[in-house]
Amino acid sequence: MAESVFIPQNSTRKDIYDALLPQIDGILQTETDLTANLANFVAVLKEAFGFFWIGFYWVKNEQLVLAPFQGTLACTRIAFGKGVCGASWKEQKTILVPDVDAFPGHIACSSLSKSEVVVPVFQNGKVVGVLDVDSDKLNDFDDQDQIGLENLIKILEKHLPKMQ
User: Which domain holds residue 24?
Assistant: First the structure.
């Protein structure tokens, strides 16, 4: 496994996402442990973009349970359909929220979070987790972030069957 990643400097977010795709693929190819891979996945994105908070919630016993993340203290469990993460799980789609205070039922794990994007992770057609990315700035995410994160999650999904 690579001990570092190449992050293009002075580039657009799209260029950075594009540069990360093959690198994330390479990282996930060489390791079979789910926790290790999720941890490195969020570490790479935190390093590349400096997101306020980024992490996974994994479905366990019909709840989303906190998994590897980087950022401030987080909510540990989220119910199906609750908050942005639970809504993404229920609706089985990415949810981009420009202003979390305007999202009905938003769960404020941190009052500093201002905007959010949540991408579901699928295995065998079923949501098994979500990637949650928070910013401390309003309107910090756009279609390029949604596309970039969804493409990275597709790489993760490709490797899930071999992970334990």
Answer: 13-162
